[in-house]
Structure prediction request, 275 residues.
Amino acid sequence: MVKNNHTIFIIDDEINVCNALSWLFKSVQFNVETYENAQLFLEKFTNEKQGCIIMDVRLPGMSGLELLEQLKAQKIHIPVIIITGYGDIQMAVRAMKAGAVDFILKPFNDQCLLETVQKCINKTSNTGSIELIQERINSLSDREKQIINLILDGKLNKQIAYDLSISISTVEAHRANIMHKMQAKNLAQLIKMYLQVQFNNEYSSIG
Amino acid sequence: MSSVNDLSSVVHEIAQSLLIVHAYVRGCIERIKNNNLNLDEFKSLLTTIQEQIAVMFSKLQYFSQLEY
Prediction:
């Protein structure tokens, strides 16, 4: 028996990934549709369907970022969750700026994915109010803010240490402080909170 | 630099296989809870999981041979 009328749209060029995620979501009674590329998804999608998209950011042909732009242009308001590899932080940040509502780093825990999907479908957020997150950012030192920006650029600790002429262990200590002050459980949550405030500040400054 | 790229590629492929195994195992657990697991499907899944584990092993072997 189908749980609800929500559909999970899985877009990934790796067929084994599509099949595995399809198996997972069907087991918790979602409808599932899988597509090996973004173009096929756009050809088949109709606005009557509710749910969310789970998409690898790197796709053949039309990229994940291009699909996000197309969804915006065609006024298709369906939440998009990006799946990206651990070294692809920069791409995840670009995807969030292009309109993705969340991202998950591979490899990920299945419970994390299920909760993220449920959160998107329910349109709830667990990253806290903007004001609360802004307070946490204000508590960061200038160096810590520098390091967050380098993390958003996708830099590894070794590269951050080189750029700032400090030791790797100092970078690691700063990162630990940042995670503690921001109350972030993991890197993905840290990035999402930081971007949430950035977007909010950009919108507030317009007009 | 090519060793760093090789390492990234190995990490990516292992992460991909882990994602697949995780999803199948969790899906099986949910279906067992609902008494909804078909034995033939389960056998087929176990074969797929075995294949993904073999992929991870081969990537780890390759990784252990990389020079830095």
Observations:
- The helical segments of chain B are 2-33, 39-64.
- Chain B has two helices and no strands.
- Chain B touches chain A at residues 8, 11-12, 14-16, 18-28, 30-31, 34, 36, 45, 48, 52 (CB under 8 Å).
